[in-house]
UniProtKB/TrEMBL annotation:
Monomer. Substrate binds at residues 71, 116-120, 176, 181, 246-247. FMN binds at residues 67-71, 91, 143, 176, 217, 245, 267, 296, 317-318. It is a peripheral membrane protein. One of its GO terms (molecular function) is dihydroorotate dehydrogenase (quinone) activity. It comes from Salegentibacter chungangensis. Its EC number is 1.3.5.2. The keyword Amino-acid biosynthesis does not apply. Gene3D superfamilies: Aldolase class I. This is Dihydroorotate dehydrogenase (quinone). InterPro entries: Aldolase_TIM, DHO_dehydrogenase, Dihydroorotate_DH_1_2, Dihydroorotate_DH_2, Dihydroorotate_DH_cat, Dihydroorotate_DH_CS. Its main location: membrane. Pathway: Pyrimidine metabolism; UMP biosynthesis via de novo pathway; orotate from (S)-dihydroorotate (quinone route): step 1/1.
């Protein structure tokens, strides 16, 4: 029903407007008596064999929602009800910011992809905290970034503010220095500034009674030498793991009219490169740390491919938009059949 009726209808309208409409719609229908139970039965698949313990946390299944969809933690309860094992909120910044000028979100239907140049539009970390205070049982990752107006020299302070504010309300943290849509942000992926940033957050973490896993989200555009640096940085800073990968600035092989729009590309064209990065990190590190695989997962087989390449968990974003919530159950069913 989703791909034959709902998606064609939604895809007739501006993608950012559809995003907000979908949020409002899901909020409303989950309040209708019986709907929550119906959707849970339709999309959730519960089985002890799906449970995963990764970086000290217990996930009810290995399929999560990637950051960028629920930027302000407005819909994590409802999204969890569609079968996700965990929800990553953000990217959030210390202060609210509107993001980049519209139009900033583009569907590439021929390529089953999306280009976005949203620019960390969000209501700020304090607003997110107020929503997360109401969370009871959803496993939450907090994806943190810096404000656009904050120079890279002061970026550490922005990440510290977000870490401190969210500490009691998320299960793990993700340090986002790989978005292509905040000017000069990717310069923080260089070995020296990245090591300094992660060490600072780990020092804050170690001062707390309960250490929260800190993960690093990396770009798919890193070359092998840079990926080897990432392995060294993870070891030196003792962070919990890596999310591979964020969106790409590559436009290789695209067919759609919007292919030359500025921003980060996600969806099917990213599938192979994301898997390559996962496999490289897993093999070269000797499986030294967990990896969450994200990028181009549009089918259960795509997810299995990433798990076999070395990912411990996977996340959806663009595939969720193109394939609908049934994809979550399909992946979990395939995981059970594959004995992974």
């Amino acid at each position: 029903m989703y791909k034959s009726f709902i998606r064609p209808l939604l895809f007739k309208f501006d993608p950012e407007k559809v995003h907000y409409f979908t949020f409002s719609f899901l909020k409303k229908i989950f309040k209708i008596p019986g709907v929550k139970s119906f959707l849970r039965k339709k999309f959730q698949l519960e089985d002890p064999a799906l449970e995963r313990e990764v970086f000290g946390l217990k996930f009810k299944n290995p399929v999560g929602l990637a950051a960028g969809f629920d930027k302000d933690a407005k819909l994590y309860k409802e999204l969890s009800g569609l079968g996700f094992g965990f929800i990553e909120v953000g990217t959030v910044t210390p202060k609210p910011q509107p993001g980049n000028e519209k139009k900033r979100l583009f569907r590439l239907k021929q390529d089953e992809a999306i280009i976005n140049r949203m620019g960390f539009n969000n209501g700020g970390v304090e607003e997110m905290v107020e929503r997360l205070k109401k969370n009871k049982d959803v496993l939450i990752g907090g994806n943190i970034g810096k404000n656009k107006i904050t120079p890279n020299a002061d970026a550490v302070e922005d990440y510290k503010i977000c870490f401190d504010a969210l500490y009691d309300y998320v299960n793990y943290f993700v340090v986002n220095v790989s978005s292509p849509n905040t000017p000069n942000l990717r310069e923080l992926q260089d070995k020296e500034p990245l090591t300094r940033l992660l060490k600072t957050l780990q020092e804050m973490n170690e001062q707390r009674p309960l250490h929260k896993p800190i993960l690093l989200k990396i770009a798919p555009d890193l070359i092998d030498e840079q990926l080897l640096d990432i392995i060294d940085i993870v070891k030196e800073t003792r962070i919990a793991g890596v999310i591979a990968t964020n969106t790409t600035i590559s436009r290789e092989g695209l067919k759609s009219d919007s292919k030359n729009e500025m921003g980060g590309l996600s969806g099917k064209p990213l599938k192979n490169r994301s898997t390559e990065v996962i496999r490289f990190l897993s093999e070269k590190s000797g499986k030294a740390f967990p990896i969450i695989g994200v990028g181009g997962i549009h089918s259960a087989d795509d997810a299995i491919e990433k798990l076999k390449a070395g990912a411990s968990l996977v996340q959806l974003y663009t595939g969720f938009i193109y394939e609908g919530p049934a994809l979550i159950r399909e992946i979990n069913k395939k995981v059970l059949e594959s004995n992974l």
